[in-house]
Amino acid sequence: MVLPGPRARGLVAAARAAQGRRVGSAEGSPRGDPASRRAALYVHWPYCEKRCSYCNFNKYVARGGVDEAALRRCLVTEAHTLLALGGVHRVDSVFFGGGTPSLASPHTVAALLEAVAQVAHLPADSEVTLEVNPTSAPGSRLAEFGAAGVNRLSIGLQSLDDAELQLLGRTHSARDALRTLAAARRLFPGRVSVDLMLGLPGQQLGPWLGQLRELLRHCDDHLSLYQLSLERGTALFAQVQRGAVPAPDPELAAEMYAEGRALLRTAGFRQYEVSNFARRGALSTHNWTYWQCGQYLGVGPGAHGRFVPHGAGCHTREARIQTLEPDNWMREVIQFGHGTRKRVPLDELELLEEVLAMGLRTDVGITHQHWRQFESQLTLWDVFGASEEVKRLQEQGLLLLDHRGLRCSWEGLAVLDSLLLTLLPRLQEVWWQRSPPPVPGG
Ligand code: SF4
User: Fold this and answer.
1) What is the per-residue pLDDT across 87-145, written as a single tens digit (0 to 9) for each?
2) Three-class SS of residue 264?
3) Where would I find the Radical SAM core domain in this sequence (predicted)?
4) How many Cα atoms are found within 13 Å in the side-chain-facing hemisphere of 260?
5) What is the pTM assigned to this prediction?
6) For 185-215, how does the pLDDT look when each residue is reduced to its tens digit (9 = 90+)?
7) Domain extent at residue 69
8) Site residues for ligand 1, CB cut-off 6 Å
9) Which of 1, 53, 226, 237 to mutate to test the pocket of ligand 1 (most atoms within 8 A of CB)?
10) Structural domain ending residue among the three candidates 268, 289, 310
């Protein structure tokens, strides 16, 4: 439902502000990814049955129903436009997120996949994920999605406690969730993920670990743990403000995360990213593209993308955001072929900051080879090798810099945000020493 790493991107911005440096404009052209003709594709379905109490995603509840045929046509048009603009020859993965994309018809999913395959190579074994809400996805419907081309499901289970599900405003019960999970595993063995939340108001460590143990008896090979983020403007935020429910306790949430990841490790799951766990190699290749700073196109209202728009004669990677509101977005797609509302060219340093902040979210970190794809002159050793602060983090056993590259230790992965507060300013410092920013008024 959200792109992985918004927090990391927030840290990038904060580190820049702290550095007090003027960020270069779109001048220069960051070296494009050598795989610049490949991309992942994210498709946003903006509608939900009702609003969950904690949710601040770009979603809408359509009171008068959804004109799905019109929405489908616009999604297809925008996918064609952006694939052409990006000069994308090969789509490695497709992710249908939302909102609640399992409310869309399987026909819409099939139409999108066909549209992609008309203009780019979509290998038969490409990962095609659909986010699923338990109440909108009985087994028969899941089978139809499978026939439409979906081969991986991500189930928004969130909790196995009915009182918590009610607090979250979810439309499903724990029983619904387990039933959907069982049906999903029968249809997509080894390719089902579940989301479990932690840090809810009033939640206690012991019962939450009990939920996780229960989930381990039912789940497939992929699991994501997400800490509740209490967002201003949500119903849950208001409930906490007026004292109707207790405020979430961040220290308790940190304890849950620590105990949860240890439990998952014991159960044979590899924590391959801050929030994501897989066994038997069931990693999400789509999300891996985000963490590796690969190119991705975002199609649909409010979708985000990052790619080089070759078709417009550009050589610079851009962060793109599509228009949020579905009716406005559709009008723009009908008029212009796409509903891109915002384009932000990423300069070389910004791209490197993302490579650092996103790459360190994974257990592999940033290999020397990966870094060289984005920066051929400054090595990881040049940037971090001589830093006393980085040495201290290594001595504390939180960070490793060696022949493989730069990565967090198991302990470091749990405190990545604090490591980035050291690493990002260091990168900026070394970068500006090499190529000082223009002096204002100079
Ligand atoms: S189903 Fe997902 S996107 Fe929709 S309101 Fe709930 S959390 Fe938000």
Assistant:
1) 999 999 999 999 999 999 999 999 999 999 999 999 999 999 999 999 866 778 999 99
2) helix
3) 33-270
4) 33
5) 0.91
6) 999 999 999 999 999 999 999 999 999 999 9
7) 6-12+31-289
8) 1, 48, 51-52, 55, 57, 59, 98-100, 133, 156
9) 1
10) 289
